[in-house]
Amino acid sequence: MTKVIALAGKGGTGKTTTAALLTRYLLKKKLTPFLLVDADSNANLNELLELNVDLTLGTIRSELKGDLPPHITRDQFMEMKVHQALIEETGFDLLVMGQPDGPGCYCAANQHLAMTMDKLADNYRYIIVDNEAGMEHLSRMNLRSIDHLLITSDPSARGILTAKRISDITAPLKLEIKNQHLLVNRAPQPLPAALEAKINEAVTESGMALGGIIPSSDDLIHQELSGESYLKLADNAPVIQIVESIFDSIFAAD
């Protein structure tokens, strides 16, 4: 069975960094093949992995609203174009959602996308979706059963509160969330008592478990500034050892 991992969090909380670190982890553990879907309108997961994007799902969905080549159905067109948009790497593929819906109705295009994702899913051990704070893309792709929801926060009271609110909106979206995990990124060391209290309060009052606390890291800052892939981070980097321990705990039952 394909398992779905979704990431959510407000902008600037290190959500895409977490997705890149998760990619590195799954490759190292040989939990492959998996599909990455960058569903953030400010798509930059490909940049953290040093990959170029030529075609996005947003472009394909716009094309579906127009005239198609003769002798091809919209289902066939969507499936063909999605395969063209796949960035194929060793152990994983990447799809980029692109810009949000423009004027007009995209309901039919989203229906064709959902049907294509159903066919794609069987090819992968995991599907990882990097979302914005809202998770509407999960419904558009017909990914309504989430095995692990990773909600990221920065080390601030407002960030922790926003993470809790994201956890709270999953019920109205009618998503089946099997496990919710709070990840606090770029945390100072040692962790201030006031911040620890906010984290404990959010975990207690929500459906989230504390997945882990990832400290601020010069290694991650250097990697982003240099433009090098996060897949090249050294195994002995302190932040990598911490992240691997966190992911070991989260995905132990998988």
Radius of gyration: 18 Å
Number of helices: 10
Strand ordering within the main sheet:
3-4-2-5-1-7-9-10
* Poorly predicted segments: none
Question: What about the largest sheet?
Answer: 8 strands, mixed
Distance between the termini: 11 Å
Q: What is the CATH topology assignment?
A: Rossmann fold
For the record, the CATH architecture stands as 3-Layer(aba) Sandwich
- Count of discrete domains: 1
Anisotropy-based shape: globular
Proportion of β residues? 15-25%
Helix content: 40-55%
Question: Total number of β-strand segments?
Answer: 10
**Structural class of the helices, strands and pairings?**
alpha/beta
Give the CATH level 1 class: Alpha Beta
CATH superfamily membership? P-loop containing nucleotide triphosphate hydrolases
Report the order of strands and helices: EHEHHHEEHEHEEHEEHEHH
Task: Provide mean pLDDT, rounded.
Answer: 89
InterPro entries: CobQ/CobB/MinD/ParA_Nub-bd_dom (IPR002586), CooC (IPR014433), P-loop_NTPase (IPR027417), ParA/MinD_ATPase (IPR050625)
GO cellular component, one term: cytoplasmic side of plasma membrane
Protein name: AAA family ATPase
Domain CobQ/CobB/MinD/ParA nucleotide binding: 5-228
Q: What is the gist of this entry?
A:
With 254 residues, this protein is an alpha/beta fold. Helix content is 41%, strand content 19%.
Secondary structure: elements and pairs:
Layout: E1 3-8, H1 15-28, E2 34-38, H2 45-48, H3 57-63, H4 74-85, E3 87-89, E4 92-96, H5 107-121, E5 126-130, H6 136-140, E6 145-146, E7 148-153, H7 157-168, E8 176-177, E9 180-187, H8 193-205, E10 209-215, H9 218-226, H10 238-250
Parallel strand pairs: 1-5, 1-7, 2-4, 2-5, 6-8, 7-9, 9-10
Antiparallel strand pairs: 3-4
Helix pairs in contact: 4-5, 7-8
